[in-house]
Each structure stands twice: as structure tokens, then as C-alpha cells.
Amino acid sequence: MEEIEKGNKGGSEERWKGAVDNLTEMTSNLDSLQKLLVKKAVFVDDETFSKASLTSEQARTIKVLEQRVETLERGLDAAISAAARARAEKRQAEAAQKAAELRAQEITRELENTTKVFELHMEELRAKQDEISKRDGDIKLLEAIIQTLGGKESHSLNG
């Protein structure tokens, strides 16, 4: 039902537009005749009237085409501006991406350096732990020797 109403509405609008166009054409023709009368032309033969009508028709066509050209030029200008904005945004996005990539590389280098430092500390800790384990072993050996010697001394003192 709505489609029928829209169709009727669209047809009605087209008829009104056609009627307005006809009135505009008649106004233009009357203006052309008035201009001829202003030039003291009292009688206009059919040939002159036809030429004036043709000229008037051509002037209207030229005006419509000029308006269409202006509309297309505005559309073209808008498209050019939009393309320029898009290029600028693309350059900004590329610059931001490049900056992000550089930052990511910097962070990766920092992580690699931190990892290397951590590995060096781990190696140092392992070496210290090995040294402590070795000294622990030396201490236990010395304690065993001391106990062994201490045990012999107490046997010889007692005996």
C-alpha cells in the first residue's frame, strides 16, 4: 500500500514539476516577446517567433546544463577534498604505524638486553652457588677432620 502511495506521490511530484517547467518556459517566451516589443517591434511573423522560441529554448537548455556543470564541479571539488583528506589520514596512519613499529623494536631490544643481563646474573648466581656448595663441602670435610682429630686427642688424653 505504501509503495502505491509513494508511486502516486512521485507521479504527482513529476506532474507538478512538469507544470512548473511549462510555466517557466512560457515566462521565458513572454520575456523574449516583451524584449522584441520593447525594441518597437509591433508585429512578429511566424518565422521570427519560431527563431525566438528556439533561441529561448536553447538558452534554457544552456542554463540547465550550466547548473548541472556547476553541480558536478561542486561534487568533483568535494571528492577531491575528500581524497586529499583521505591521503592525509593515510599518511598520518602510516606515520603512526612506523612510530609504533619503532617503539616495538625499541621495547624488543630492551627486553633482549634485560634478558641478557638476567642470564648474566643467573650465571653469576650459579657460580656463587657452586662456590658455596664447594665451601660447604670443604667445611664438612674440615669438620670431619676436626672431629677425627678431636676424637684421637681425647683417646690419647684419656689413655
From TrEMBL:
Keywords: Coiled coil. The keyword Coiled coil applies. The keyword Coiled coil applies. Residues 62-117 form a coiled coil. It comes from the Eukaryota. This is Uncharacterized protein. The lineage of its organism: Eukaryota, Viridiplantae, Streptophyta, Embryophyta, Tracheophyta.
